[in-house]
């Protein structure tokens, strides 16, 4: 019986001087419910980051880049805490657009028909005017592509193209700026599923030699995977970003460290709702991997994880 009663539940006691790391430790010692999972997640991430031979993957969807959580993602890349980024096309949309224009606080309960009449797009409780999204993206993307077209290179891997945009933008507020500066590849397997991808297609209409080489990206991922001694991942949300991360890692018998943050449920069999242990059955995560699934909103959980990590690493 003693093996079940090895650690007692402790009350959380907060003070004005309580820091991130102390808070996370207390959440872990509190024993329940998501609070302890957040504590475990920090422990897994700390261990993963401190293993030098571990190639670290960061995957996330575009929606959080429309929020202030973009700053956390940017800092994770800026501080080189991760080696590979896998995300969606919308991440490029929001990251590029926000280097030039502002997004605004909104409300989930706003009249969407009225917003449409006023040329305002709603992403959750974020308001994005047309001039802050489609219009500015067209100006930036077409301008950069036009300059790149003047060179000899006509065939681009997506990861290389993203670095070029980060270099041309030159904005330290940008995730892709720090990715190119720190030589961290960003893979977007669904590159045409967003405004950035649509602008690539628009450019192609008048430049038929322009070509996106998705196989070069997959080859680079292959090279990274098969030369890695260990791999780990912080996966935020599901969909194609999560799947591409665990899919490639199955070819090296699975990830060694995993933290997964999700709001989805597993009852419908979705990948987004699937907890990390389901990936163990596919060989996408090792049987003895250190892993945890944390249920909750990444805009709350991710800053907590990052704040605690800053005190540990």
Describe the structure.
The chain is an alpha/beta fold. It is 46% helix and 16% strand. The protein has helices spanning 20-30, 34-50, 70-78, 89-97, 112-117, 134-149, 158-169, 175-181, 195-206, 214-227, 239-249, 276-282, 298-310, and strands spanning 54-59, 84-86, 104-105, 120-123, 126-129, 155-156, 186-187, 211-212, 230-236, 255-262, 285-295. The strands form 3 sheets. Strands 7-2-1-9-10-11 form a 6-stranded parallel β-sheet, with helices on both faces. A 3-stranded antiparallel β-sheet has the order 3-5-4. The chain has a two-stranded parallel ribbon with strand order 6-8. A hairpin with a 2-residue loop joins strand 4 and strand 5 (126-129). The model has no long low-confidence stretch (mean pLDDT 97).
Structural class determined from secondary elements: alpha/beta
* Strand composition percent: 15-25%
- How many beta strands in the DSSP annotation? 11
- Helix-strand string: HHEHEHEHEEHEHHEHEHEHEHEH
- Strand arrangement, largest sheet? 7-2-1-9-10-11
């Amino acid at each position: 019986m003693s093996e079940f009663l090895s650690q007692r539940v402790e009350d959380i006691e907060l003070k004005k001087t309580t820091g991130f790391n102390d808070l996370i430790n207390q959440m872990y010692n509190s024993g329940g419910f998501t609070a302890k999972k957040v504590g475990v997640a920090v422990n897994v991430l700390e261990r993963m980051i401190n293993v030098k031979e571990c190639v670290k993957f960061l995957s996330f969807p575009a929606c959080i880049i429309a929020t202030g959580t973009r700053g956390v993602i940017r800092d994770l890349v800026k501080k080189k805490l991760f080696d590979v980024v896998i995300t969606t096309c919308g991440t490029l949309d929001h990251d590029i657009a926000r280097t030039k224009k502002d997004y605004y606080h909104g409300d989930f309960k706003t009249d969407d028909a009225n917003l449409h009449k006023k040329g305002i797009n709603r992403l959750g409780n974020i308001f994005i005017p047309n001039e802050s999204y489609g219009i500015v993206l067209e100006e930036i993307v077409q301008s950069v592509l036009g300059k790149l077209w003047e060179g000899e290179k006509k065939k681009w891997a997506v990861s290389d193209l993203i670095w070029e945009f980060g270099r041309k933008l030159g904005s330290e507020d940008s995730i892709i700026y720090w990715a190119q500066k720190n030589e961290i590849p960003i893979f977007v397997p669904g590159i045409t599923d967003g405004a950035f991808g649509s602008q690539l297609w628009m450019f192609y209409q008048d430049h038929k030699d322009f070509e996106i080489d998705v196989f070069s990206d997959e080859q680079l991922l292959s090279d990274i995977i098969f030369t890695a001694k260990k791999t780990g991942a912080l996966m935020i949300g599901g969909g194609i970003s999560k799947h591409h991360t665990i899919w490639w890692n199955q070819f090296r018998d699975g990830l060694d460290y995993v933290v997964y943050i999700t709001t989805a449920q597993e009852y419908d069999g979705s990948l987004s709702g699937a907890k990390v242990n389901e990936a163990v059955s596919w060989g996408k995560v090792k049987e003895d991997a250190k892993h945890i699934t944390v249920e909750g909103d990444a805009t709350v959980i991710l800053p907590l994880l990052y704040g605690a990590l800053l005190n540990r690493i």
